[in-house]
Amino acid sequence: MNVTVENLAPCKKLVRVELDAAAVDAAFAATEKDFQKQANLPGFRPGKAPIPMVVRKYDSEIKDEVKRKLIGDSYRQAIEEQKLDVLGYPDIEEIQFGRGQALQFAATLETPPEFQMPEYKGLPLKREAKEVSEADVVRALDLLRERQTDFKPVERVLASGDIAVVNYTGTSEGQPLTEIAPTAKGLTQQQGFWVEMKADSFIPGFADQLLGAKVGEKRTVNVDFPPDFVSKELAGRKGVYDVEVVEVREKVLPVLDDAFAKSFEAENLEKLREGVRRDLENELKFKQSKDARAQIVRELLGKVNFELPESAVANTTRNIVYNLVQENAKRGVSRDIIEKEKDAIYSAASMNAKEQVKLSFLVQRIAEKEEIKVAQEEVLRRIQTLAGMYQIPPEKFIKDLQKRNGIVEIYDQLAHEKVMEFLENNAAVETVPATA
Questions:
Q1: d(CA 271, CA 282)
Q2: Of 334, 342, 362, 379, whose CB count within 10 A is highest?
Q3: CATH 3.30.70.1050 domain residues, the chain
Q4: φ, ψ for residue 172, nearest 5 deg
Q5: Rounded to 5 degrees, what are φ and ψ at 15?
């Protein structure tokens, strides 16, 4: 077998393979015998029909099988001989094939980029001198109290922080709002609507004009719909509301005591404080690590430039675009808007994809140099965690992963996490004052 390799471009090679006619004929002879064993022709016992008759009947199938086997075997042998690291699947072009002829074919393939590995230990990293304070714990406890707020009816005028239960009808320039914005039914008329007495509640300026009102009182409320208002037809317009106050409700927070702590399954208030502090510390640690790794990625990507395999970038771009479109659809963004923004979406996805692909090659090289490996037990633990998260039996989850090569993805994710942890632990950390 004769093999030649040409460099077409960075990360792209053309491998030409030639197999002599004798090897091709031997493959035809072996395949014809295999077909003879299975052939069932009239007048002959199974497997006893003469080979010339078998060839006449199954000539096309025999050629396809010989071609498939010879090209597949020759390609793999050529890659091994040339010690080529191949990404994805090759694009194979048949040049010559037939009985009594040498087999010639060419395979266009992509290979990993070649680059000089930059220094990756001691990357500069700024970490804020931040810690969980008592004030942070108090704020977190107050948020827990907010979740158990009681809204008690009171016999007094509306004050800041209260809830006004109102009936209202809205117009703009004398027209019901639905005539201007057909989908704005909720903005046009409501019964028993709750408005918190805060400046930015509901429509800016609405709540302020109800302060001091009592139950049964009717007021006219004038508002200016903001330029970026959710209903585009109303944005920038003036509105007039006829409002009747039905109830005044006072926000009552629960007492911070042991009974309150037990409602969150804590033994007592002190244990709840400890748990809240621990959660805040874990959250802070997670945020600091996330920020640190973002800094590390920026530094690492900025240290070296190299050409990237086109197919890897294209595949990653497609995945990012698909995820972006799915996320926008879930958020209720219409197909028309997505279509209008498709060029911007693709451009952003392409930039992101290049960074992801570049980082993946750097991470892979670091893992090789530092002998960072992922054990099978670690992969199984991650699979069990994910199966529990999605409430799928682990056995079924594994089968689903195997169908889409998902186990390799999990292995790569774990390897990536280990390399990032290694880089973070070996970074040159500078402690800087905490921001607000």
A1: 16
A2: 362
A3: 2-110
A4: -140, 120
A5: -105, 115
CA dist 168 → 153, 206, 242, 262 (Å)? 19, 11, 5, 41
pLDDT, the chain, mean? 93
Written as one letter, the residue type at 425 is N
What's the pTM value of the predicted model, to 2 decimals?
0.74
Please name every residue paired with 164 in a beta bridge, in sequence order, or none if there are none.
195, 248
Nearest to 19 by CA among 103, 100, 140: 103
Distance CA 197, CA 212 (A): 11
Amino acid at 179: E
Q: Which part of the chain is CATH 3.10.50.40?
A: 150-252
What topology does CATH give the domain 150-252? Chitinase A; domain 3 (3.10.50)
Six token digits for residue 115: 């680059």
What is the DSSP code (8-state) at residue 207?
A: G
Contact 70, 27 (CB under 8 A): yes
- Helices and strands in the chain, H and E counts: 13, 12
Predicted confidence (pLDDT) at residue 88 exceeds the cutoff of 90: no
The terminus-to-terminus CA distance of the chain in angstroms comes to 69
Query: What residue type is assigned to position 194 of the chain?
Result: W
Alpha-carbon dihedral sign for residues 199, 205, 211, 216: negative
Task: Say if residues 9 and 67 touch (Cβ distance below 8 Å).
Answer: no
Give the fold, CATH level 3, of 2-110. Answer: Alpha-Beta Plaits (3.30.70)
Spatial separation of the C-alpha atoms in residues 15 and 92, rounded to whole Å: 9
User: Which tokens sit at 324?
Assistant: 């972006």
State the virtual CA torsion across 396, 400, 402, 405 in degrees, nearest 10.
-150
The pLDDT confidence band at residue 59, using thresholds 50, 70 and 90, is: very high
**Confidence band of 374 (pLDDT split at 50, 70, 90):** very high
Question: Is a pLDDT exceeding 70 seen at residue 13?
Answer: yes
Distances (CA, A) of 201 to 220, 233, 290, 425: 17, 20, 34, 46
Mean pLDDT on 259-282: 96
Neighbours of 54 (CB within 10 A): 22
Q: What's the pLDDT tens digit per position in 99-158?
A: 999 999 999 999 999 999 999 999 999 999 999 999 999 999 999 999 999 999 999 999
